[in-house]
């Protein structure tokens, strides 16, 4: 007779390993200008995934629970203050995470838009440098099913640029030499910035009595100091050789001339993300002809 003794004992409970907290890096990459009023701040969120990490299946955006902005010590601010955050790259994140192993990373581009006009309305646009702190609050689920949270922020510092204001204040036609005449354009440029700017180019087309009279482009005209208003004149020279005889006779007799003056000015700031401000002009009217 064979006796088989079978012993039975309760297997010890093996606790699940504790969750490894989610970790992330958050970097400011660059700044672009959609227009002088809309700035685009490019950030990069790098999430490091431990093994067996999961996030809710739907929607993937649950990873980003909330966000807000602080600007030069003011905040929290959100869409109502002129900010919007593009986090569309997060929507495909769950597919990427399912293929990761320990030590993998996901690089997520985030774009923060700033409406400078709205910030100025609220008195939140600084005169000089911007300090924009973007704060993200992330929610996730660990391998044990326990929920976790992570708050991370990134500070973007960059110079503020306000649009210089270019105006044409006066126009005069000057009788000059036998085959030439002059055109005097009075201008003012208001530079509200804490650095100098340059009127780098001035393109124009001039019509007299409805016919093309002159066109051209002037370069490297004048520098406008920081926080100052500069007034002056630009002198242009036109040639009589190809001019309509009727217009020539009006200028010789110092009579009023019907003109149209169109073109654009370019003011450069020297700031990489918003280097040039362009102002178009189209002026019409009558000008006396003044003896030079």
Question: What's the number of structural domains?
Answer: 2
- Strands in their spatial order, largest beta sheet: 1-2-6-5
> How many runs of DSSP E, i.e. beta strands?
16
In percent, how helical is the residue content?
A: under 10%
Classify the beta-strand content into a percent band.
over 45%
CATH names the topology of the largest domain as: Immunoglobulin-like
What summary fits the major beta sheet?
4 strands, antiparallel
Mean pLDDT: 77
Can you name the CATH architecture of the largest domain?
Answer: Sandwich
Give start-end ranges of low-pLDDT stretches. 1-17, 56-61
| Rounded radius of gyration (Å) | 33 Å
- Helical stretch tally: 3
Model description:
This protein has 2 domains: 23-159, Immunoglobulin-like, CATH 2.60.40; 165-291, Immunoglobulin-like. The strands form 4 sheets. It has a 4-stranded antiparallel beta sheet. It has helices at 93-97, 116-121, 245-252; strands spanning 23-35, 38-49, 64-71, 74-77, 83-86, 104-115, 129-141, 147-159, 165-175, 180-191, 197-208, 211-224, 228-239, 257-268, 276-287, 289-291. The chain has 292 residues and is mainly β. 20% of the residues are buried. Helices cover 7% and strands 57% of the residues. Mean pLDDT is 77; it is low at 1-17 and 56-61.
């Amino acid at each position: 007779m064979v006796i088989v003794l079978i012993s039975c004992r309760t297997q010890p409970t093996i606790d699940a390993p504790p969750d490894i907290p989610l970790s992330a890096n958050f970097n400011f990459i660059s700044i672009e200008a959609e227009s002088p009023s809309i700035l685009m701040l490019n950030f990069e969120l790098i999430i490091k995934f431990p093994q067996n990490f999961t996030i809710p299946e739907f929607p993937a955006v649950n990873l980003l629970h909330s966000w807000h902005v602080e600007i030069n010590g003011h905040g929290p601010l959100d869409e109502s203050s002129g900010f919007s955050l593009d986090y569309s790259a997060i929507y495909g994140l769950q597919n990427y995470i399912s293929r990761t192993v320990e030590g993998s990373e996901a690089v997520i581009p985030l774009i923060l838009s700033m409406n400078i006009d709205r910030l100025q309305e609220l008195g939140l646009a600084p005169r000089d440098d911007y300090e924009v702190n973007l704060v993200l609050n992330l929610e996730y689920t660990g391998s044990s099913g326990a929920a976790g949270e992570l708050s991370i922020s990134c500070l973007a510092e960059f110079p503020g640029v306000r649009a210089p204001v270019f105006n044409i204040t006066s126009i005069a036609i000057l009788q000059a030499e036998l085959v030439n005449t002059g055109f005097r354009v009075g201008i003012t440029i208001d530079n509200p910035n804490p650095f100098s700017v340059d009127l780098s180019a001035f393109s124009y087309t001039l019509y007299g009595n409805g016919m093309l009279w002159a066109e051209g482009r002037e370069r490297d005209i004048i520098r406008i100091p920081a926080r100052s208003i500069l007034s002056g004149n630009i002198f242009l020279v036109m040639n009589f050789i190809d001019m309509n005889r009727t217009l020539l006779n009006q200028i010789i007799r110092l009579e009023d001339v019907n003109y149209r003056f169109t073109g654009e000015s370019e003011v450069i700031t020297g700031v990489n993300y918003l280097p040039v401000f362009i102002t178009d002009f189209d002026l019409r009217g009558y000008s006396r002809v003044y003896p030079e």
